[in-house]
Amino acid sequence: MIHPHTELRFVNEEIGFGVFATKFIPKGTITWALDDLDQILEHSFVNTLDLERKVIVEKYSYRDSEGKYILCWDLGRYVNHSFNANCISTPYDTDIAVRDIQPGEQLTNDYGFLNLDESFTCLPEEGTDRTQVNKEDILHYYKEWDQLILNAYQFFDQVEQPLDHLIPTIYKQKMKLAAEKREVIDSIKTLYYEGRNSK
């Protein structure tokens, strides 16, 4: 489930729609959490779908560390990519704001840790040399992403968490422990799906 203080807006013809903050969302806020309405689809099932439905599943889902397709039931499926993402997926079935998100600002995620089946070229962005999202990005950038997540955990207990009820207690404990110890407990690298190149 996506953070309740968000809405879907049209960005432009090239990008399509995106998810925008309707209120201030501070660093350390969980912006998305897996919930029981999200669809978890086996790779074998997705391969049996007719082309029209398969294209939609592949476009709007990500793959977990087991290679299953996670298809968000709500606006979470419309969060766009950015190399300077303000949200990052954690190893705990959540996304966390790694910096303050202002009202009217688009929520973004780096698709490099979503186990996508195919690489793709992105629109140019200031402040980065990256131009492509590749299947192996998580193996190259996980240390940088781990630090951003760890820094965000420091604020987890200091900000309002509207999605708190969707986060299992063990995950909250691990986030808090990482914040206390100021060390990575579980790396984002654990999200990597090694077998995703197999069709």
Explain what this protein looks like in three dimensions.
With 199 residues, this protein is an alpha+beta fold. The protein has one domain (6-38, 73-184): SET domain (Beta-clip-like, Beta Complex). The chain has 4 helices and 12 strands, in the order E-E-E-E-H-H-E-E-E-E-E-E-E-E-H-H. The strands form 5 sheets. It has a 3-stranded antiparallel sheet. A 3-stranded antiparallel sheet has the order 4-6-5. Helix 3 (137-153) packs across helix 4 (169-181). The longest helix is centred in the C-terminal third of the chain and has 17 residues, at 137-153. The protein starts with 5 loop residues before the first strand and ends in an 18-residue tail after the last helix. The model has no long low-confidence stretch (mean pLDDT 95).
How many helix segments?
Answer: 4
Structural class per helix/strand content?
Answer: alpha+beta
Rg value: 16 Å
Give the CATH superfamily.
Answer: SET domain
Report helical residue fraction.
10-25%
Q: β content, as a range? A: 15-25%
**N-C termini distance:** 29 Å
Biggest β-sheet strands, sense, barrel: 3 strands, antiparallel
Q: Average pLDDT, to the nearest integer? A: 95
- State the total count of DSSP E strands: 12
How are the strands of the largest sheet arranged?
3-9-8
- Overall, the morphology is globular
- Remind me, CATH topology? Beta-clip-like
Which CATH class is shown?
A: Mainly Beta
Point out poorly predicted stretches.
Answer: none
Task: Return the domain count.
Answer: 1
- The helix-strand sequence is EEEEHHEEEEEEEEHH
CATH architecture, by name, is: Beta Complex
